[in-house]
């Protein structure tokens, strides 16, 4: 059994034993001998040799004539089984003999680090099954909260809203949350004390990981509708969570992956963070630098696997791959790769092929987004170089073009990034003029224009060289005239249009 700490692995074992004893044998109660062992304690109490461990393991698997079944439960199994080759070999031999014992012996192990369990043991005939216990979804968290609170008069809808905020929480986290709320309320737990305690109770899944809960980035951070992308993302990401009953009614499944494509500087990353924040789900970003930073061959694939594993633990989660074309490579023959001195790339193109294979395998295994799933978001400025295998149904199901902001969007961008210029945000006429003169500009280009004008005003104030009679509009006009917007590149713009028509994005 694998899963994050506090998710309920030990509880599940105890519950299974209880159910077995009461229901397994009709007419009489079955007797189960439970032998609990903690791997870390065994290692701590052992001597310099493995002899005490060998004796302990051998005794664990001795049949009991006084019970119908013997259940050996090894918690923190990774600490024990990865201790030495001798321990691994001994456990393998003991597992091979389980089928010949006089009374049934079952071995159940629990670990937070399944990758540390030797592969020699993780095969049929030894460890036959691996069960991953994921953190509960929203409805699961509501159920756990009710069990912890017992008889409660708390509002059902209020509990549901609270559970939505508890992204990545496991049962142990929820128990701690209630304990804090009880202490804060002087022995009385209310929705107010629960919400107050939530601010100081980080979930286990987000501790010491690349997962985060986006803060300070909402839909208001995106100027306009980003060429319609904002509305499409809201429907694809928020609706499956906030309108889940309607989705169930129409038997509609949300997308597993969404690709955001378009010119650089059009707020693709901001859109990804905003949708995760609005849907109140965990968020994780991977860039090419994250994937190819390690020095050894195979490390890049390990980063991809670890990212998907972390996202599953923290679900519901948005897993965002920025510049995905540089992470998985493309299908074009001109992309030679390699020679970049980036660890993990190996010979470049072959490394990207391995990363692509790993990415596809992991993506095919993710749960569909929604209440309890993982949504994979990708962003690229070069959609035409992506391998067709990425774009088939069941992977990146939805392709969303993120273009430069429209007229109203540009006004919002000027208002956001020109907030340091006195009077700009409160002057709708000036905002309209600035938006009109920057048609085709990306959000990043408008942000750069605002920064330049603001810096000019700052320098003039500090140095006392302010130009008399020069209006804010004239300052912006001078700066804008020196900018060549990326959309003036007709060839680049045409490529996006061709891709949109081909993919009907």
Automatic annotation (TrEMBL):
The keyword Ion transport does not apply. It holds the Pfam family AAA_lid_3. SUPFAM superfamilies: P-loop containing nucleoside triphosphate hydrolases. Keywords: ATP-binding, Coiled coil, Nucleotide-binding. InterPro entries: AAA+_ATPase, AAA_ATPase_domain, AAA_lid_3, ATPase_AAA_core, ATPase_AAA_CS, P-loop_NTPase. Belongs to the AAA ATPase family. The keyword Transcription does not apply. It comes from the Eukaryota. Coiled coil: none annotated. It comes from Triparma retinervis. Residues 1-137, 254-406 form the AAA+ ATPase domain. This is AAA+ ATPase domain-containing protein. GO terms for molecular function: ATP binding; ATP hydrolysis activity. The lineage of its organism: Eukaryota, Sar, Stramenopiles, Ochrophyta, Bolidophyceae.
